[in-house]
């Protein structure tokens, strides 16, 4: 649990900083949903590597676990793609909106990763 919380903190900071940096650098020329897509792919990939090697310490099964990892994150991704435009249209800054979304949705991923992404075949839901 400690390694998950530490990794979750790192991934939250990484994902938020990545979105914010890309938004700051490219928002005048690139739509924020494209920026969100790029930061999501890179952020989830970073999270997968951290969870695989630091939290759950599994061996092999890279593609299967990566696809399962994305399946678990798909709920978070959908919430993000719906919430960001709504919050921005309500007048919230993209930095605050994305920070709020990342903070709230990150809390719900531990069980999904434990029981789906990195579960041994005997433990899978």
Classification by helices and strands: mainly alpha
The DSSP helix count reads 5
The helix fraction, in percent, is over 70%
Distance between the termini: 19 Å
Number of β-strand runs: 0
Q: Which segments are poorly predicted (pLDDT under 50) over 5 or more consecutive residues?
A: none
Question: What's the Cα radius of gyration?
Answer: 15 Å
Task: Summarize the helix and strand pattern as letters.
Answer: HHHHH
| Most strands sheet | none
- Shape verdict: elongated
- Quaternary state reads single chain
> Roughly what is the average pLDDT, rounded to an integer?
88
Report the β-strand fraction as a percent range. Answer: under 5%
Please explain how this structure is put together.
- Helix 1 packs antiparallel against helix 2, helix 1 runs antiparallel to helix 4 and helix 2 (32-55) runs antiparallel to helix 3.
- Helices cover 78% and strands 0% of the residues.
- It has 5 helices and no strands.
- It has 125 residues and is mostly helical.
- The mean pLDDT is 88.
- The protein has helices at 2-26, 32-55, 62-89, 94-106, 110-117.
Task: Produce a short descriptive summary.
The chain has 125 residues and is mainly alpha-helical. Helix content is 78%, strand content 0%.
């Amino acid at each position: 649990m400690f390694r998950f919380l530490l990794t979750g903190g790192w991934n939250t900071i990484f994902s938020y900083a990545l979105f914010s940096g890309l938004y700051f650098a490219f928002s005048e020329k690139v739509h924020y949903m494209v920026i969100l897509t790029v930061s999501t792919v890179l952020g989830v990939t970073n999270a997968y590597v951290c969870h695989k090697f630091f939290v759950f310490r599994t061996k092999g099964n890279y593609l299967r676990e990566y696809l399962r990892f994305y399946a678990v994150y798909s709920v978070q991704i959908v919430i993000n793609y719906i919430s960001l435009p709504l919050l921005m249209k309500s007048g919230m800054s993209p930095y605050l909106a994305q920070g709020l979304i990342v903070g709230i949705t990150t809390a719900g991923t531990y069980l999904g990763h434990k029981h789906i992404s990195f579960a041994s075949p005997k433990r899978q839901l």
